[in-house]
Amino acid sequence: MSRTDRASRVIAAPPATVYGALLDRESLEAWLPPDGMRGKVERWDPRPGGGFRMVLTYLDHIDNPGKTSDATDVVDIEFADLTPSERVVQRAVFEADDPSFAGAMTMTWHLSAAGGGTEVTVTATDVPPGIDQAAHEAGIASSLANLASYVEAAG
Questions:
Q1: How far apart are the first and last CA of the chain?
Q2: Where is the Activator of Hsp90 ATPase homologue 1/2-like C-terminal domain (predicted)?
Q3: According to the 3-state scheme, what is the secondary structure of the chain?
Q4: Range of the domain at 28
Q5: Is the pLDDT of residue 66 over 70?
Q6: CA 150/CA 118 separation, integer angstroms
Q7: CATH code for the domain in which residue 45 is found
Q8: What is each CA distance from 112 to 18, 45, 56, 81, 145, in whole angstroms?
Q9: Which of 107, 111, 148, 155 is the most exposed place for a label (fewest CB within 10 A)?
């Protein structure tokens, strides 16, 4: 059965600014890793059909074992659709030996103007069953909070 996880947040920045942070390598490294992780982009090709590879490292891997190794999650992301200032659709595949993390998860970042800012809604579909739903939604919310802090500080 396919599962969908969601989170949203209003960010005090225009859609074009938020969209730019979704497609900038250094920006992604700064805000995408949820609390308790750090990230490094190893490959970068910001166009439809392109994508990136990110290594996420747990700061406390004893209590939070990774999917790829004891301390890491490695994910290959393909940009499936890029609609400037409106939407970024990503297909994410985790490197993992455990089949409960297998498959392509689709992450849709939808941006809509909201007052003087942007409502960002993230919808993850086809989430692998090995990913805990509550933890995943908390991780997405954490990334959105980081994104808000990042773009609001720059503005």
A1: 42
A2: 12-152
A3: CCCEEEEEEEECCCHHHHHHHHCCHHHHHHHCCCCCEEEEEEEEECCCCCEEEEEEEECCCCCCCCCCCCCEEEEEEEEEEEECCCEEEEEEEEECCCHHHCCEEEEEEEEEEECCEEEEEEEEECCCCCCCHHHHHHHHHHHHHHHHHHHHHHC
A4: 4-154
A5: no
A6: 14
A7: 3.30.530.20
A8: 10, 25, 28, 16, 17
A9: 155
Task: Please tell me the distance from the alpha carbon of residue 21 to that of residue 100, in angstroms, as a whole number.
Answer: 31
Number of domains in the chain: 1
Place of tokens 């392109």: 50
Residue 90: which of 52, 57, 142, 118 has the closest Cα? 52
- Give the residue carrying structure tokens 């689709």: 106
d(CA 17, CA 58): 28
The structure's pTM equals 0.91
